[in-house]
């Protein structure tokens, strides 16, 4: 049987983590006070009690509202640092974090303020704990492709700090093909590419992300099982899926963890990884995801080792760094 010490000891890599989704209610209130931002909640407890979601959109509404307390470079530093402390506790040794610049630039926050705060915290954690990292800029898919292209232009001066481009926010009704030109431009500029697909949206969106956006990894992707031909492709090409178990349960992609298809995906030979997505909202950082998966699905030692290895291999870390992590 799998014990806590074994799960703790596994070298972990997080590939699907929205930094804005690590904003704990306590820090949200602290920053609201520091910045004189009004929150429509009276207390931390009342805010936490509101974290009852029916679907992706009901979560996103609170997530964007929460981000309104982030104003200064120090705010983004504090946010990122708090997340990295959790990484250190959970033996997460490499992180590739998403940020949503449009959520902030549309409120008048400078792109530089956001990325400089995030980057400085990542740098400090690398110095202190040897946690390596990459930063992935996500386009908000409920906004237009023109806005995505404008964001890509804003990122240009910070290009050396950004490893890749992703696509997140409301999935259904915003198919990957809407961003075909923006992703082509990003590829041209040398970015690595990923996209959320097949979380709530259909398997067809996974095809589109692969064929029209040329992404290297699929974020979520759990709905691939609806399409046998797609599963065969994902297995043959060993295209990584960054699966987020607690997120999927909290957003009702699966009714409960025992119904999650992660074990089935692994057994079918898909390159699955475990990630926490928006841990402050879904109640679990990396180890909590490991624990809940083990409690509900009961994986073998070999499957846990495979999950750990998959994440290292699926990362955008250098070959030298991957060799250290393996
Ligand atoms: N933004 C933050 N978390 C997300 C998720 N799980 N899906 C889509 N967009 C997101
Ligand atoms: Zn996500």
Automatic annotation (TrEMBL):
Its cofactor is Zn(2+). InterPro entries: A_deaminase_dom, ADE, Ado/ade_deaminase, Metal_Hydrolase. It catalyses: adenine + H2O + H(+) = hypoxanthine + NH4(+). Transmembrane segments: none annotated. Gene3D superfamilies: Metal-dependent hydrolases. Residues 11-326 form the Adenosine deaminase domain. The active site is at residue 199. Binds 1 zinc ion per subunit. Its EC number is 3.5.4.2. One of its GO terms (cellular component) is cytosol. The keyword Oxidoreductase does not apply. Keywords: Hydrolase, Metal-binding, Nucleotide metabolism, Zinc. Substrate binds at residue 278. Pfam families: A_deaminase. One of its GO terms (biological process) is adenine catabolic process. It is an enzyme of class 3 (hydrolase). GO terms for molecular function: adenine deaminase activity; zinc ion binding. Zn(2+) binds at residues 16, 18, 196, 277. The record marks 220 as: Important for catalytic activity. Catalyzes the hydrolytic deamination of adenine to hypoxanthine. Plays an important role in the purine salvage pathway and in nitrogen catabolism. PANTHER family: ADENINE DEAMINASE. Belongs to the metallo-dependent hydrolases superfamily. Adenosine and AMP deaminases family. Adenine deaminase type 2 subfamily. This is Adenine deaminase.
């Amino acid at each position: 049987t799998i014990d806590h010490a074994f799960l703790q000891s596994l070298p972990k890599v997080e590939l699907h983590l929205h930094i804005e989704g690590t904003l704990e209610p306590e820090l949200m209130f602290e920053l609201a006070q520091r910045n004189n931002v009004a929150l429509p909640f009276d207390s931390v407890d009342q805010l936490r009690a509101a974290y009852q979601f029916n679907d992706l959109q009901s979560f996103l509404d609170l997530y964007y509202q929460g981000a309104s307390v982030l104003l200064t470079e120090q705010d983004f530093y504090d946010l990122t640092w708090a997340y990295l402390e959790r990484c250190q506790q959970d033996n997460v040794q490499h992180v590739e974090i998403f940020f949503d610049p449009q959520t902030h630039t549309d409120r008048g926050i400078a792109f530089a303020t956001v990325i400089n705060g995030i980057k400085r915290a990542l740098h400090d954690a690398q110095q202190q704990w040897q946690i390596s990292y990459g930063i992935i800029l996500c386009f908000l898919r409920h906004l237009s492709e023109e806005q995505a292209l404008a964001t890509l232009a804003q990122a240009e001066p910070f290009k050396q700090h950004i490893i890749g481009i992703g696509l997140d926010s409301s999935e259904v009704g915003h198919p990957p093909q809407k961003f075909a030109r923006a992703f082509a431009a990003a590829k041209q500029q040398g970015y690595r590419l990923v996209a959320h697909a097949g979380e709530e949206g259909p398997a067809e969106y996974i095809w589109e992300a692969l064929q029209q956006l040329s992404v290297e990894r699929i974020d979520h992707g759990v709905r691939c099982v609806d399409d046998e031909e797609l599963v065969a492709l994902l297995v043959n090409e060993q295209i990584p899926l960054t699966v987020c178990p607690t997120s999927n349960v909290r957003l009702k992609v699966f009714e409960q963890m025992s119904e999650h298809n992660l074990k089935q995906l692994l057994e079918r030979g898909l390159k699955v990884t475990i990630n926490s997505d928006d841990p402050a909202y879904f109640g679990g950082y990396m180890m909590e995801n490991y624990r809940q998966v083990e409690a509900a699905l009961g994986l073998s030692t070999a499957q846990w080792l495979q999950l750990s290895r998959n994440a290292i291999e699926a990362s955008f870390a250098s070959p030298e760094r991957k060799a250290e992590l393996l």
